[in-house]
Amino acid sequence: MIEAILKYEFLQNAFLSGAVIGIIAPLLGAFIVVRRLSLIADALSHVTLSGIAAGLYLGQTVPTMATINPLYFGMLFSVGGSLLIERLRSVYKHYQELAIPIMMSGGIGIGVIFISLADGFNTDLFSYLFGSVSAVSRGDFYAVIAIGITVLVTVFLLYKELFVLSFDEEYAKASGIPAKAVHLAFIILTALVISVSMRIVGVLLVSALMTLPVAAAMRVAKGFKQTIWLSILFGETAVLIGLISAFYLNLAPGGTIVVTSIVLLFAVILWKKDRN
Question: Any stretches that span the bilayer, and where are they (predicted)?
Fold first, then answer.
């Protein structure tokens, strides 16, 4: 396995990208779960799919667009979707959770339209849906690194604000924290992380990487910081085991990563129950 990684660039891209995603996805997921916004990852992943489908369609129909990575269209759509979710949350102040299914439905609808225009599913789109070890390019890896550094720096600088905002939004506003700006920055970062995770985990399964490691960590952690560290540990473990399994078994990595995450979750639940 190590010889193969050293020999083939696509394996280097996949494993290094996976290692970074295994850190930043559960890191943001910890804040998302605490804020009870777990489904937002599903909504943004479907919006990202519509952007990727649009990029693939434009690549087929407009020759000058063929050189542009569809992932960038996915990022653009995902960020736009995150901003629209925030706008809808302000419109439906007493029913803010409506914003998520609205965007999810819109993302699916637009995605289906572009997929139909592009004559259905092709190999590229399939790799975005379920992830692919061989599809991660060097450009994808650089995008993951850039977004990973941005996430780590932002969380480090705004940790206190994010922490207070996650547990008590009203207190955060009363204490002078620019809650709207902080939340906007957080939701945009979440959109970017979801979009760059597509190549490894896939559109349909990316939300699991942001929530399952956190769910496992919450069963054993004694505080929020410990929850974050354990979430990253479980996320990294799931990604590495999932990628190795996908390589040897010739499977889509999204499925192996998520199944590994579920196994880890149930193992933690059973271990905790046995201790109690």
Answer: 14-34, 39-58, 70-86, 98-121, 141-159, 171-194, 200-221, 228-248, 254-271
Total number of domains in the chain: 1
pLDDT digits (tens, 9 = 90+) for 187-235: 899 989 988 887 778 777 788 888 999 999 999 988 899 999 999 999 9
246 in any annotated domain: yes
Range of the domain at 194: 2-270
Q: Give the whole-angstrom CA distance, residue 203 versus residue 194.
A: 8
Q: 29 to each of 71, 155, 180, 236, 239, how far by Cα in Å?
A: 21, 12, 19, 13, 15
Residue 38 lies in a domain: yes
pLDDT in tens, 22-61: 999 999 999 998 888 878 888 888 888 888 888 888 887 8
- Tell me, yes or no, whether 275 lies in a domain: no
pLDDT per position as a tens digit, 247-270:
888 888 888 888 999 999 999 999
